[in-house]
Structures are given as structure tokens and as C-alpha cells.
Design a protein that fits this description.
This protein is mainly alpha-helical. The protein is 61% helix and 0% strand. It starts with 16 loop residues before the first helix and ends in a 19-residue tail after the last helix.
Length: 280
Amino acid sequence: MTDTNGITRGNLVPSFVLIIFFTLTYAITWGVVGVYITAPDWAASTFGEISGAHPFFFLATWAPAISAFALVLYFGGSAGLKAFLGRLRLWRLPPLWICFTLIGIPVVFMIGSVLKGGPLLAPMPPEGAGAMVALTFMMLFLGPIEEFGWRGVAQPILQRHVAPLWAGMIIGTVWGIWHLPAFFLSSTVFAGWNFFPFLVGNVTLAVLVTPIFNSSRGSLLWPMLFHWQLILPIWPDAQPYDTWLLLAVAVVVVWWNRESMLCRDTAVTAVIPASAGVGQ
């Protein structure tokens, strides 16, 4: 059975999938990290110390993508998954957002670092430039992969029901709290951070990426590049100034784009592009 647009109803990604997505994502990440929090000695002796190179670290980090792929495949089949991944090819974006993603984000880190008396770029590691390049490349396969879930599934579904601004704030809150167990692991960088500024930062970033996401008509490419910029090791440590600078930028962005941020008329709501004829 098809609707008036020729979309197979059986392949629709319904809104209740959002709850399943959040539940699966939390279950995977909190389950993995929870073992190391509640039984650290047993976990370390059985599976090894968790670190950035541990398979469990990747499993916990990739939980949003794993959940997204499983749900898209279930509701859209292989054709739906192919169409979903086709959103990686949506590269058109207004020049202003391209400049903000590629130049604006680094400038914020640099200004924040200078404000705290730091350098414009992160110091070169003792291993040399090769190690920095390798780490930069590896980062592409960590945080950015999360965007298959946050912007791939959660953002479109939420925007069916609330304005983009509120969708971004909801995702930012869920995204921030999702990281909470990592703050209790001494082996992670989060252990030395304060959670509240981190949460504020996550909400801010989710709001900032929202107009980029909608302006690119649901691209996964640009949110992934945005996310990559946030964790590139070449940018200096600018905490806490980067959080407050980005918050100020977000206020300006929301005000400047208030019509689109507070209205669902132009918001992307399709998980699987309808043009592919397999669902939404």
C-alpha cells in the first residue's frame, strides 16, 4: 500500500522509533561503560583497560550509529539503508554555513585559548607531525560517526513535532547526558571536566548544527564535518571560554534565523529521503 507520494507505508520510519533509538543508544553505551564503573577490577582483568583503542570504546562511541542503522534497516530494508546513507552525498550548503563550519569553529577555539593565555594551535605531540595527522584521521571515525544517529534519526523525527530550536535543545540534552558515565571513568578525558558546562556546551552545539542540517536539506556530511571540527587535536584547549563563546554565537544564530528555527515549515523530517521511494 502506498500513499499519494508513492511511498510504501510499510517502510515509513514512525515517530515512536525515537524512543527506541534513545533506549538502544543508552543501553549500549551505559551498559559497556557501566561495567567498568561498577566492577572496574573485574572488567579490566577480563576485557582489558578501556582506552581510546579498545573495541569497547568504539562500541560505546558508535552506539548512536549502531542504533540508527539497525532501525533504518528494520523499517526501510536494504534499499532504505542505502537511501539513508545517500544523505552523505548532500553537500550543497549556503556559503555562510560552510565558512562557519570550516573557519568559524577553529576561530572560536583560538580566541578561547588566547583568552586563557594559551596558544593558537595545540602543541605538537612528542611523536611528531605524523602522530598528529594519524590522530586527526582517527577522530573522523569517532565523534562524527554519532551523527548517523543524532542528525540521521533523532533530528528529523523530532522536527515532525517541534520547531528546530527545540529539537536541537532536546537532542543536545540527551546527547550530553548520554556522556555522563564517562565522567566516572578515570581513563577518559571527561574525568577531569565539570559536567554542567559540558552539558551546556552540548545543547549549544546541537542548536548550532541545526540550521546547518536543515539548510543542507538533511545532509549527514556537514554535521559530521561540524562534529569533526569540534574534536580535532590541532585546535587548542579553550575550556571554558569556548563553551561561552559558542553559546554567544548560538544566541546570535538563533536570533538571525528565528523564522526558520521557530517554525517547522522548512524543517527536514525525513529519516529516509522520500525521493528514494522507500519511506521517510
